[in-house]
Amino acid sequence: MEMFFHGFMQRAFQASFLISLIAPMLGLFLILRRQSLMADTLSHVSLAGVALGLLIGVNPTFTNIILVSVIAIVLEYLRVVYRTYSEISIAILMSAGMALALVLMGLNDGGATLSMNQFLFGSIVTISEQQVWMLFVLTIMIGLLYLIFRKPLYILTFDEETAFTAGLPIKTMSVLFNILTGVTIAVTMPIVGALLVSAIIVLPAAISMRLSNRFNGVILIGIVLALIGMFSGLVVSYKVGTPPGASITLILLIVFVLTTLVKKISYYIKIERLFKRNDIL
Amino acid sequence: MMHYIEVKNLAFQYEEEPILENISYAVDASDFVMLTGENGAAKTTLLRNILGLLKPSKGSVQISPINRIGEKLVIGYVSQQVASFNAGFPSTVLELVQSGRYQRGKWFKKLDKDDREHVRRSLDSVGMWEMRHRKIGELSGGQKQRISLARVFATDPDLFVLDEPTTGMDTNSREEFYKLLKHNSREHGKGILMVTHDHQEIRHYADKHIELVRKEDSPWRCFSMDSCKELSKPHS
């Protein structure tokens, strides 16, 4: 219980709660649009944003948000250019982001190594009140946008051509979605770490997709799973001293394995019952 | 009154290679037009040009912004690959078919009783009402095709643009489907442009026939429409 008395732990739980609300929404759309790796790309670019901020002495979260938003637009452009091989855009920007981050870190004469480590692996100690507020605003924004635009988004993820012929502004929607994903990654990264932020966004939705047949059902279950993963990951991180991002990811992976096993077992039980019933008949 | 679709001297080329040339025709309200051609005759490419998914390299395509009663024209499109939904897409049959109603001014409004009735009738018309709670990814190819059609019927569009919509359907289902389209065009003034290989079956229902034929004087595999092949349909 004593951990709840620490200000940094309170902020960590508040931030985790907010991340759990938005991650499954973004994660589901990323998966359905075959862009799961986009989160990874943007997290690599985020590192460059942080390195830039540290180099020029500006709050890294702000440089990060600006850089990631620009790259999110470039990503959409490249996705259209390489329509058939959309992973090319991911590969190009992922390596570009990492290369830029390393160069900027090099220019900083090693002074920012400690900070960079925090951004790479995440840290619950460094979460500021300002970051929690930013996450709060972002959560409200994403939640509202989802509630208002869930029908256009459903069609967009189902089939882009159908969405286009239905008169939806698919380019604008895609760019806005990319920017929102980028900003979420930029704000979330200091807490869970650049290396695992994409896992935390994608995993809850990936697990819940196997548990619900309905679109909204997937998001609701995803939120519950994210809450379980985030909260228990934080507790483990505090008790054992492991990096929060890694702890949360491992717990979500355990949930993934468990749900897969339970699904498989329940499927076999169902089949067996069916055979038994047929035998009786 | 504008044509629903008006294609004037359309040409399309992919990089340097001409694919389509000299395409001109119009689709009006109540027209049932079938578009045929051998495999690889760029039928889908032509549809994609018409819908704005591809840009013609020459000529123009105009789609009327309004329908015959002056309201915003609603297009219902079923693409060739729309039935190959990814198996994991988290949606029931009912959710997907309901999404057809969004185009009817329901992007930001709740579906009402009339919408739900449209959805029920659309699912009934393709024999999929009983399966409305199934996950779409678990359906067979033919069933997926049926719910794609149910979705477009639920939209109740002014203009149907259909790309080989009967793939995977048996003869009886195809006949039923053509009758339904005919009813929609004749009784409700819907315009229909349909790419098909079932030339012989549909000629009893369609009003016009456009055939894409290979240009013999071109060194490329380029297709055009022979104006004589556009027939006013006397069969029905």
Automatic annotation (TrEMBL), chain A:
The keyword Transport applies. One of its GO terms (biological process) is transmembrane transport. It holds the Pfam family ABC-3. CDD domains: TM_ABC_iron-siderophores_like (cd06550). The chain crosses the membrane at residues 12-32, 88-107, 119-149, 175-203, 215-238, 244-262. Coiled coil: none annotated. It is a multi-pass membrane protein. One of its GO terms (cellular component) is ATP-binding cassette (ABC) transporter complex. Keywords: Membrane, Transmembrane, Transmembrane helix, Transport. The keyword Protein biosynthesis does not apply. It is found in: Cell membrane; Membrane. Belongs to the ABC-3 integral membrane protein family. This is Metal ABC transporter permease. It comes from Oceanobacillus jordanicus.
